[in-house]
Amino acid sequence: MASTNATTTALADRHEDVKYAFAFKNLDWEAYHRYRPVYPASMWRMWFDYHTTHGNGSFATAHDAGSGPGTAATIVGQKFDEVFVSDAGAANLATAEATLTPRDKFTFHHGPAEQTASWLPPASVDFTSICMAFHYMDSAATVRAVAMTLKPGATFAAATYGFRLLFPGQPRAEALWYQATSCESLRLMREGKLFPAAVKGLARAMTGLDFVAFPSDLFENVRRVYVNVKEGEDKALYFVDKDPLWDEAETFVAPTDTREYIQDPTWGRRADAAWLRGFLASSQMGFDETTWSLPEWQELEAIVGSGPDGTIAVEWPVSITLATRKTNA
């Protein structure tokens, strides 16, 4: 009990608010960017082409919600005249404010996405994006709050990538990655090293974005794109075995939603063993030397080390959702 209490206290000390799993008081965002995928040009083309061909197609005003250090807002700001940037974490937002330029293009707001309608005027935004953050939000509340701020014909775009890495042409490496991440994630849950909000977010993320519903009274042209996922593939983004320690997230894909399956190697890179460790550690779940000492992890690193320059090709399974704010809503 004492150990569990100490762990809980240590976790709380790292967070501004334990309700928001990625609202850390301090985070090395440089390391985060070093060990995370770059949102490829193919995603931005898809998003902006969709925005141009559906609805109003205006590039006047955008909102990047759950922005973190402004990773996606950097690209959004290259297309839109004015960009609102919001995040539940004050430290995250401070990093974005120190990073994004030109400064006069961006307006910053500290607050969760669920409260978007409390500070953005109704029907004032042409494009809202949420990248790798939706799983930490109350999706129903966020969708309705964002909808209130979107102009008729505006675009809602979201993306999340998996921690179940793909290793093209290396099925043994792929199996070892899954075995190690599942074993260690369950250990961390048993040891109380993950807040309930983090466990719930993990479960949602493993559905991609299928846990997000886009009500037909608010949105149309809902397009769900599964990247590096085969049609009919079950649980493509899962990296933890089903277990009583966590509850699977409910999914809300409507019959009218369009499903598309594409292969896109630009959602990938070559990685060495140190990068694989860094990527997994960047989840902030607590992976550490205990993880790297697993026999499965040691075998995986041996496979990686035998590759060209000690590297291996990796790809991400990705879930992308695009929706248009109804003009007659």
Automatic annotation (TrEMBL):
<keyword id="KW-0489">Methyltransferase</keyword>
<protein>
    <recommendedName>
        <fullName>Methyltransferase type 11 domain-containing protein</fullName>
    </recommendedName>
</protein>
<dbReference type="InterPro" id="IPR013216">
    <property type="entry name" value="Methyltransf_11"/>
</dbReference>
<keyword id="KW-0808">Transferase</keyword>
<feature type="domain" description="Methyltransferase type 11">
    <location>
        <begin position="64"/>
        <end position="157"/>
    </location>
</feature>
<dbReference type="Pfam" id="PF08241">
    <property type="entry name" value="Methyltransf_11"/>
</dbReference>
<dbReference type="InterPro" id="IPR029063">
    <property type="entry name" value="SAM-dependent_MTases_sf"/>
</dbReference>
<dbReference type="InterPro" id="IPR051052">
    <property type="entry name" value="Diverse_substrate_MTase"/>
</dbReference>
<comment type="similarity">
    <text>Belongs to the methyltransferase superfamily.</text>
</comment>
